[in-house]
Specification:
Blueprint lengths: L9 E7 L2 E6 L5 E8 L2 E7 L5 H24 L1 E6 L2 E8 L2 E8 L3 E4 L8 E7 L4 E8 L9 E6 L2 E8 L2 E3 L3 H13 L2 E7 L5 E7 L3 H11 L4
Antiparallel strand pairs: 1-2, 2-3, 3-4, 5-6, 6-7, 7-9, 8-15, 9-10, 10-13, 11-12, 11-14, 12-13, 14-15
Length: 221
Amino acid sequence: MQIGSIPRPYRWRVRHWGSFTLQNETSATPAFVIVLRNAAILRVERAGALPYLLGMKYGFILIACALSAASVARADDFVGTFGDWHVQTYDEGGGKVCLMWGQPTKSQGNYTRRGDVYTYVTQRPSKKRLNEVSISIGYPFKKDSALSVSVGKSKFSMFTDGDTAWNANRKDDARMVKAMRAGATMTASGVSGRGTKTRDVFSLKGFTKAYAEMNKACGIK
């Protein structure tokens, strides 16, 4: 999804339906959060540090991008909420993307500030990229650390980069999705760049239904 031209290391990011962030790729904290409701801009929040000169130079782009984001939202489709999981679709370079996401029901860790935590499953059929699982943890991971994930008796070690973790290959993605469809909860344990250990528990209530609806939206059988 293109929502305007912003210089690196800043980039737009879809956090979840109705919320876009202007994100510094080197930070887990977004500079701005644009919140939409019914395709209209509800509010624009300053959430992190955006250099003053950059803000002055590109301030007009931020406004234009906010309006563009609202316009894009009209074309996007929020499919629905199923238990503790949500499904949406959007256009990405002319190809339809289907996404489901959930947040933890319980989080543990000795931290004072932390960003939002999400688990995503994404389908990009036009690019033949299916069942891509990623977890956005709300802080920069410790360098070269892994995110340990357990679903029932199934264990996974996801590689990390910045504030996000992924599986190393499609086979592990498929195996994780299969475990999540059959499981009741998923636990993710990670370590921040400051050495803080965290543990997040995700409910898998509604996951199977959300997964089926996501695939239906993308025409995946």
